[in-house]
Structures are given as structure tokens and as C-alpha cells.
Write a structure and sequence with these properties.
The complex is a heterodimer of chains A (241) and B (372).
Chain A: E1 5-6, E2 15-20, E3 24-33, E4 36-39, E5 53-57, E6 70-79, E7 93-97, E8 124-129, E9 142-149, H1 151-157, E10 167-170, E11 187-191, E12 197-205, E13 217-221, H2 222-237
Antiparallel strand pairs in A: 1-9, 2-3, 2-5, 3-4, 4-7, 5-6, 6-7, 8-9, 8-11, 9-10, 10-13, 11-12, 12-13
Chain B: E1 16-17, E2 22-23, E3 27-28, E4 41-42, H1 53-57, H2 60-69, H3 77-85, E5 88-90, E6 95-97, H4 101-117, E7 154-156, E8 162-164, E9 192-193, E10 200-201, E11 229-231, E12 237-239, E13 260-263, E14 270-275, E15 278-282, H5 289-298, E16 304-311, E17 320-323, E18 339-340, E19 350-356
Parallel strand pairs in B: 15-17
Antiparallel strand pairs in B: 1-2, 3-4, 5-6, 7-8, 9-10, 11-12, 13-14, 14-15, 16-19, 17-18
Chain lengths: 241, 372
């Protein structure tokens, strides 16, 4: 996260780290149920096999796991059938954990939006992750406040890339607060009126965040995929896929 | 790869992917800008130091070169840019094939000054001396005289300038000659027009199981099923009696989607289960708390809050499903898989109504307050 700040442990209990040896943290992910997490499809390019991955939850400092940390293997990875590497479209995947997590103050799921339910542009939301902060990769989870941007306005920042309805943009023209390499798959969450946090985006792509080319970040539009996510979980749970 | 040298398994000197300490290999080009190159495979790191196509696609250069193409400073600039961004991979040696020095020099001579006008530098790492001379010992790339400057995801203006395909026919003039707003019918553009919203979609999107028109016309009339069959989401036909029986018959499993619902039409939420394309009530005889839990979990809701047995009102003729006598043995089945049709009606004449909680989500632990 560029322009963010270190997050307090437990503040984002749905944030998880998708890791694979020998590199460790590769992408962010988001807990949406006791046995289910979301991340983006591009994290699995070249590494689609579930058994090379693990999901670490309840962690703040990647270098110092605490007693609140829970680690799970990955039982299955479901990439969206329409995922396109070329335009990074349909950039979403569902992770099935090898066993349920224990719900604690530090590990608990975020709410999914209803299909098509998206806050208005200019709503302020939060992004989190262990991605690049501009001069280094941080150990501690970072958080940043970003503003949702309409698709039309977002397209104007990316003259040579296609912004589709499967994407949602958030950030600032100046790129002051933005997600960055290593944040992919992590959450863009907005607080609802009832105090609950709902997942609207998964960090997907953007400009080279610490270069001169700035602009907002582009996130997978979770509300577009709500039904798809529910179907994948249902099919896997009842062995119907 | 920490030393930037390669393990012996990489056949000595193939480029090394510093990310995962394995040998770099030829991979298909996915960079939107360069899909029109006369070769299909690339290898990383590229000549600009990017370690992956993803890094390349969001790089400063990937933004700079297409913008520069619009100035028409050099006809083969985009070809040159792509040889840097996604270098050709020789499948035999897993080695990058560089652009020829003359191509690099021509690009730089003609376009560097244009960049200078707006105060931007020519990209680093493009010292032409690093590339081989044409016709030398080392093979290098030169453009085909009739190479297409714009990639398939871009529209070529009459002037030759490339603009993003999504900007074509968007009612805004993007080409200086307005050619992006001419001939805007879907048919003229080789696309299919959605009857309702008049959006243009590619022919490959028709009947592919994903609705792309706002009124879903692209997914209608895709198959002709018999009267005793129902249409799967992917347009296969499956016999009605197999629909919502707990087993997959459509190859995409869509015969088992949305089989269970709670209707809020009455004061309590009656459980309704689809079977053979029709809606059924569930007889309470043999119903257990475990089945209530299965129902609420399957619906993506929390644990059951209340279970009611609702007396049949006697109005209309109800259809019933009954709990299978050996439902315990059908472990891991969805609710519709443990219910069955019987020839007789429900003995108790009561159907199941449920209230499910909502799954606890999206709450952060309360911040602890301490005395100061």
C-alpha cells in the first residue's frame, strides 16, 4: 500500500496472506467463510496447483507470527472460467481451505455484497495488504483509505487498457494512496451503515505504483461475482462440480 | 538466481527468473498491446528489465510507446516497442531474439525528439549498441513492411493512429479525423447486436453460458429441448425428473442450482424445494434439527433461529416432498438430495417453515478502551 499506515493487529480480521515456498507471501486474500477465501486469478499464473499454497490468517507482522495466527493448506483453487490474462478481466478465484478456521477476534470473515450492490462513486473505503510501500516491502500489514471512482472516469486514466464492468476503481488521480505489487488479491472494503464491513473489490492491477505514471488502482468488482462465488462454494461443498 | 547467474538446468546461459529461481521459458504473449506481433511466444526478463508480462503491461514504457505511436513519428515504433516489452523467444534455445540495431536507431532518431518536446526522456535500457547489426552472426528482428501498427485490441484511425477498441463508437471523437465514430453498427464491425440495449458483443459470447446483453438475449434460444427436458445454464438439455435430485446431470451442475428457497409470503418462511421443474413443500414428518441446519447452511445463512410446523390451510392442491427414510446415509448431500416424492400426501398435513439467522461477517473486534 502506498501512502498508507501500519495497521493495528486484528483491525482487518478477514485479511489473509497467500504464501508459497520458497518466496513466502505472494498475494493477499480475503476470508469470506470458515473454509473459504477469495483472491485474484492472476496470483496463480504458472502455479495453479492447490498443494503448493498455504493461507495464513490472523497475522499482522509477516516476520513474527503471533499466537493468533492460523495457517491452512489450500484444498482447491477455482479460477473464473473467463479469466483473461491479456486484459486482466474476470480476475477472481475462490480458495477452499483444507479445514475450517477458528473464528476469533483476529480471524473472522467479511460480508459479501448483494449482486450488483456497489456504493456510489466518491465513497471512501479501505484497502489493506503487505505489498510494496514505495521503497520496500513491509513486514507489517498496511491500510489506506481510497475513494471509489466511476468506470468512465477510471477509463480516462488508462488510455491503453480496457476497464470493464468486472472492475472497480479506487484511489486518487495523483496516486497518493494506492495498492501496489504484493497487495493483489487483498480486500477493498467499505463500512456499511450497520457497522459491518463489506467486500467490494480485490486488488487486481494498476500503473507501476511507485513510478511516475500514477492514477487509481483497479480492483476485481466483487458485486459482479457474488452469484458466481456462491455457486462455486455450493458446488464444492456438495461435491457437485 | 540471486547472483543473476543460472542454474545448470537452464542450459548454461538462459535468462533467469529471479522470482522463483527457476529457468525462464518461452510463454505465450498476453500483453494486450502486442498481440499483433508476427511471433506468439516471449520470454522474461525483457529488454527493459521487467520480469513478467504483468510487470511489463503496467510499466511506464507500456504507456509511453502507444502514446508516442499516435504522433506517427515512425511507422514501426510499436513493432520496436513490442520487441523490447515482449521479446521473441527462440523455442529451441529459450533465448530472447533482440531487435536489430537499425530498427532501434530509426525508432530513436525519429521519435526521441518528439518526446523531448513534452520534456520526457527516451526510455532507459534502449542503448541501440546492445542490439546486433542486421545480417550479422546473431539473428535479430526487423519489421515486415506491411506490419499492422495497432494491436487487435486497438482501432486504427484513418490517420494510422491507434486508439483503444473500447473507444470506438462511444460517441466521443478519439481519432482526430473522427474515423472511430464512423460505421458504428455492430454488423459493420463484425459484432452481434443485443436487441434490447443495442450493445455489440463478439460472436464467441453468444450462447457461452455467460449473459452479456443486459436482457440476456445472447443466452436465449440457444438450444431446443424436448417438453420433458429443461435447459441447463450451458444450454445442454437434461430430463426434468433429474432436475434438483442432488446429483449433477448438467455438465456445469446448473441442474442443482437454486433448488432450495425460503418464501416470505406468509408470516413464517415456508421451505420450498424445486423438483422436476416444479415447486414443492416439505412435509414435517421425519424432519430433524440437523436438516434445518443443512438448509440454512446451504442457503448461505447462519444457523437456524426457529423451526415451525405450519398447518396446511386446505386451499389449493399442494405438492409434497418427504424426508428420505435413510437420509443419514447420504452424507455430504444437498437438501434436495435427501428428499423424495411419494405417492401419498403428508400424513401430518404440516409443512416446514424456517427462520435462519444471518452469517456473522464483516465485524471487527471492539476497540479496547483504557483509562488514561
Amino acid at each position: 500500500i502506498l501512502g498508507g499506515r501500519v495497521s493495528r493487529p486484528g483491525r482487518w480480521p478477514w485479511q489473509c496472506s497467500l504464501q508459497s515456498e520458497p518466496s513466502g507471501h505472494i498475494c493477499g486474500c480475503v476470508l469470506i467463510g470458515k473454509k473459504w477465501a477469495l483472491t485474484v486469478a492472476h496470483c496463480f499464473e504458472g502455479r495453479e496447483s492447490a498443494d503448493v499454497w498455504k493461507v495464513v490468517l490472523g497475522i499482522n507482522n509477516l516476520d513474527h507470527p503471533s499466537e493468533h495466527t492460523q495457517t491452512r493448506g489450500v484444498a482447491s483453487v477455482t479460477l473464473h472460467q473467463r479469466y483473461s490474462r491479456a486484459v486482466v478481466d474476470y480476475d477472481i478465484s475462490v480458495l477452499e481451505l483444507d479445514r475450517e478456521v477458528e473464528i476469533t477476534s483476529y480471524v473472522r470473515p467479511v460480508c459479501l455484497p448483494r449482486p450488483g450492490q456497489l456504493p456510489m462513486p466518491d465513497t471512501y473505503c479501505y484497502i489493506t495488504g503487505w505489498g510494496h510501500v514505495g521503497n520496500r516491502m513491509p513486514y507489517k500489514l498496511q491500510e489506506g483509505e481510497v475513494r471509489l471512482i466511476s468506470l468512465a472516469q477510471c477509463q480516462s486514466y488508462f488510455d491503453m487498457k480496457t476497464i470493464t464492468s468486472r472492475m472497480v476503481c479506487a484511489g486518487y488521480e495523483s496516486g497518493t494512496v494506492d495498492s501496489c505489487m504484493g497487495d493483489s488479491g487483498g480486500p477493498l472494503v467499505c463500512r456499511e451503515g450497520d457497522g459491518r464491513w463489506r467486500l467490494y473489490g480485490l486488488t487486481s492491477w494498476g500503473s507501476v505504483c511507485f513510478s511516475k505514471v500514477l492514477g487509481p488502482g483497479v480492483y476485481a468488482n466483487v458485486t459482479h461475482f457474488t452469484s458466481w462465488i456462491q455457486q462455486q462454494i455450493y458446488l464444492r461443498t456438495y461435491n457437485l462440480d | 538466481c540471486t547472483s543473476n547467474s543460472c542454474p545448470t538446468g537452464c542450459q548454461g546461459n538462459a535468462p533467469c527468473d529471479g522470482h522463483n529461481a527457476t529457468c525462464s521459458r518461452c510463454e505465450p504473449i498476453s500483453l494486450e498491446l502486442c498481440l499483433n506481433m508476427p511471433y506468439n511466444n516471449t520470454i522474461f526478463p525483457n529488454f527493459l528489465g521487467h520480469r513478467s508480462q504483468r510487470e511489463s503491461s503496467v510499466s511506464w514504457e507500456a504507456n509511453l510507446f502507444p502514446a508516442l505511436v499516435q504522433t506517427s513519428c515512425y511507422r514501426y515504433l510499436m513493432f520496436f516497442a513490442c520487441t523490447l516489452l515482449v521479446p521473441k523467444c527462440d523455442p529451441l534455445t529459450n533465448q530472447r531474439v533482440p531487435p536489430c540495431r537499425s530498427l532501434c536507431r530509426s525508432s530513436k532518431e525519429r521519435c526521441e525528439s518528439v518526446l523531448g518536446i513534452v520534456g520526457l526522456p527516451w526510455p532507459e535500457d534502449t542503448d541501440c549498441a546492445q542490439f546486433p547489426e542486421d545480417g550479422g552472426d546473431t539473428s535479430c528482428l526487423l519489421p515486415d513492411p506491411d506490419v499492422d501498427e495497432c494491436s487487435p485490441s486497438h482501432f486504427t484511425c484513418r490517420s494510422g493512429r491507434c486508439v483503444l477498441a473500447t473507444k470506438r463508437c462511444d460517441s466521443h471523437m478519439d481519432c482526430e479525423d473522427d474515423s472511430d465514430e464512423e460505421n458504428c453498427g455492430c454488423v459493420e464491425r463484425g459484432l452481434w447486436e443485443c436487441p434490447g440495449d443495442k450493445a455489440c458483443i463478439t460472436h464467441s459470447m453468444i450462447c457461452d453460458g455467460f449473459p452479456d446483453c443486459s436482457l440476456k438475449e445472447d443466452e436465449s434460444n440457444c438450444s431446443v429441448c424436448n417438453d420433458n427436458e429443461l435447459e441447463c445454464n450451458n444450454h445442454e438439455c437434461v430430463h426434468r425428473t433429474l432436475w434438483c435430485d442432488g446429483k449433477k446431470h448438467c455438465s456445469d451442475s446448473s441442474d442443482e442450482w437454486d433448488c432450495v428457497s425460503l418464501s416470505n409470503s406468509s408470516s413464517s418462511s415456508s421451505l420450498s424445494v424445486s423438483r422436476s421443474g416444479g415447486e414443492y413443500q416439505v412435509c414435517v414428518d421425519g424432519w430433524t434439527p440437523q436438516l434445518s441446519e443443512l438448509t440454512c447452511t446451504q442457503l448461505g445463512l447462519g444457523l437456524p433461529a426457529s423451526i415451525k410446523e405450519v398447518e396446511e390451510s386446505g386451499v389449493g392442491r399442494r405438492r409434497w416432498l418427504h424426508v428420505h427414510q435413510e437420509w443419514h446415509q447420504r452424507n455430504g448431500s444437498a437438501l434436495q438430495g435427501v428428499l423424495e416424492k411419494r405417492s401419498h400426501a403428508c400424513a401430518s398435513r404440516k409443512h416446514v417453515a424456517l427462520e435462519c439467522g444471518s452469517e456473522d461477517c464483516g465485524r471487527r473486534p471492539a476497540v479496547r478502551l483504557v483509562k488514561r
